[in-house]
Design goal:
Layout: E1 2-3, H1 5-22, H2 38-60, E2 68-69, H3 77-100, H4 102-116, H5 121-142
Antiparallel strand pairs: 1-2
Helix pairs in contact: 1-2, 3-4, 4-5
């Protein structure tokens, strides 16, 4: 799929506006000239500026390129299945991650998606387990952001 830059620019401006409005509810820190909304709003400003530049460029090349073109491979049932599987995996994660835990859920999700994409079973097993463990270590240990332990709570 090929999307004109003007479309992506408009989406970036929409995202920037959403971030800017959501950060308005962030609590202020007493005695500080800036608060937790500063960094997200700076990023939102940069996104909006990028969006404006992309719209200008997209409009300039518009006569030569349509707004959206879909490649032949993207029209295949297999590609639609991959999209559906990805969205289903996200919903499944939301529903079962507290019960199963991040490591088990992420491993199953990654393995299912890789097998659907015809990755070999050995590569799938190694990559899914390694990825889940690395992400769990990065979030849980390095960034101290707890992920659901689920069934593995006995090993905590």
């Amino acid at each position: 799929m090929r999307v004109n830059e003007a479309v992506i620019g408009a989406l970036l401006i929409g995202l920037a506006l959403a971030v800017f409005s959501i950060t308005a509810s962030f609590p202020r820190i007493p005695g500080q000239p800036y608060g937790p909304d500063l960094f997200p709003r700076v990023i939102a400003g940069m996104l909006a500026l990028s969006g404006v530049l992309m719209i200008i460029r997209g409009v300039a090349i518009r006569p030569r390129h349509p707004l959206v073109t879909v490649a032949d491979w993207a029209r295949s049932p297999r590609a639609a299945g991959a999209i559906a599987l990805t969205l289903g995996a996200i919903v499944a994660y939301i529903l079962v991650s507290d019960t199963l835990g991040f490591v088990i859920t992420a491993t199953l999700m990654l393995a299912g998606m890789m097998l659907y994409l015809r990755v070999s079973v050995v590569t799938t097993a190694i990559a899914a387990v390694a990825t889940a463990l690395v992400v769990e270590y990065a979030f849980g240990s390095l960034m101290r952001i707890p992920l659901p332990r689920g069934l593995l709570v006995v090993f905590a």
